[in-house]
Amino acid sequence: MGNSESIFLRSVNQKSLEETRQLNKILRLIIDSSYDAIFVADENAVGIIMNEAYTRITGVTPEELIGKNMQELVDQGIISESVTLKVLKEKRLVTIVQNVKGTELLVTGSPIYDENGKITHVVSNLRDISDLNRLKSELYETKVLTKKYLDEIEDFKQKEGARLLLDGVIAQSKEMMQVLHLAKKVSQVDSTVLLQGESGVGKEIFANMIHLNSKRSDKPYIKVNCAAIPEKLLESELFGYEKGAFTGADRQGKPGYFEQAEGGTLFLDEIGEMPLDLQVKLLRVLQEYEVMRIGGTKTIKVNVRIISASNRNLEELVEKGEFRKDLFYRLNIVPIKIPPLRERKADIPPLAFYFLNKTNEKYDMNKHFHIDVIHRFEAYEWPGNIREMENLIERLVVTSDSEEITVNDLPGIFNLHSENRIKEKTLKELIEEVERKAIIEAMLEHKTTRKAAAKLGISQSTLVKKMQRLKIII
């Protein structure tokens, strides 16, 4: 070989070597630019290439992987099992769920063959599926919670409380069940009832329920808001007037609400706003069962049951001289205090789902809550009680952009209350939350209590007991 020929061949080899280096550099840049993790092993299952995403996703460094046999990594517990070993054994593309240092990954191993059909390399693509499993778990929790409360509402309809539910009262808390029990008992008699509770707790609904479940249900039911009628008109509206009793009076006269409610029920809402002079006349009706119209000269016997309600503390008003003590005692024969929503947290989820379904039907929509929304609802104080919840849920349904209503759709005040609620939780409550989430995730992944218990490191019987205690149904 001549000198010129030798120089030419060296030039060609150098050029080929440079091209190969350049190609390898480009290939390396392509592999590192992948968002998903990529790992390459040779025919002996020894790691030779891994990209930056692998370390980012798993925390495993090149020093731990490159030049190491995959069986070593399995034995050391760095990876749960090796897709490379499976591909080399089965000589085909394989997909598994792999755990690498606690990170759950979906791994696909692809064999690379030479011209003789022999596997020379295995390329593994890895994707982090922990977020997917979390979302899957949360979706399952939402579905379970929704079904639970809808089933409870349906079950409640079938039981003795059906009519109470249909009258608008939805409850499962022990506090409200006690109130419902008392309301049902008192509906069977004619005793005067005083409903007390904050604005929006449902006093009017209870008054309706008591009337509808009473022996007077087929008779008139008259509602009067004492705060909504001007003081000068309230007397004539309640007691009626004779013709010519005052300027502008109807020529024929007019019966008042007491006469109109004959045989039935008169509901006096916001009774604490009634002027003192009218309280005297109301007291006479309760004592004598008779009224006298304005401008009249004779009394009219009435047979009316009185239910009154107030969001103000009448006993405090009595002490201040703003409400008559004798009238208070007459109205307070059967007091029923309706607790605010913040004192009956167990009622929040069923109420929320009830209003959600009601609004969906109203607007022909199919919105649903993310599980965290219910958690935020339970942490909130609800100063406007049930009325506030109903109005908020309607607003969320009609204004949210997607089918799922998330915490991002909630007003900012809910975030503040959620943070405060977390601080208020006991250690036991926090532990139960963590246990519940871990059990649901394990059951979703492993399907059986035996496999889920093994994953959690507890016995099967212990897992079953925990699921019963935490009311987890899979």
Automatic annotation (TrEMBL):
UniProt domain PAS: residue ranges: 23-74
One Pfam family matching this protein: Sigma54_activat
Domain of life of the source: Bacteria
Keywords, comma-separated and alphabetical: Aromatic hydrocarbons catabolism, ATP-binding, Nucleotide-binding
A GO molecular-function descriptor: ATP binding
Biological process annotations from GO: regulation of DNA-templated transcription
Domain PAC: 87-141
PANTHER family: C4-DICARBOXYLATE TRANSPORT TRANSCRIPTIONAL REGULATORY PROTEIN DCTD (PTHR32071:SF57), TRANSCRIPTIONAL REGULATORY PROTEIN (PTHR32071)
Protein name in the entry: HTH-type transcriptional regulatory protein TyrR
Originating species: Pueribacillus theae
